[in-house]
Amino acid sequence: MSKDDGVRLTVNISPGNWSGIEEVMRRDGVSVTEAIHRVLWYGNTLYNAIACEGQQVFIEFGDRRVQLFLIGHEN
Hints:
The protein is of the alpha+beta class. The protein is built from two helices and two strands. The chain has helices spanning 15-28, 32-52, and strands at 57-61, 64-68. The chain has a two-stranded antiparallel sheet. The protein is globular and about 35 Å long. It starts with 14 loop residues before the first helix and ends in a 7-residue tail after the last strand. The relative contact order is 0.09. The model has no long low-confidence stretch (mean pLDDT 89).
């Protein structure tokens, strides 16, 4: 199977992660599948920026700026 074919997975997720997926579904009006695709894309993008490319990633909350780090990964 090539990576373009996709892979069907069955996974167990925590209640907290499920709440996050439900929030994306509610806010964006998308299906479970699309919400999971979006969350995985966001996570993959952040992971690649920090772990693979050595970039610093920040989130701003009003006047507060917070840097994101990967747990178990040396930046």
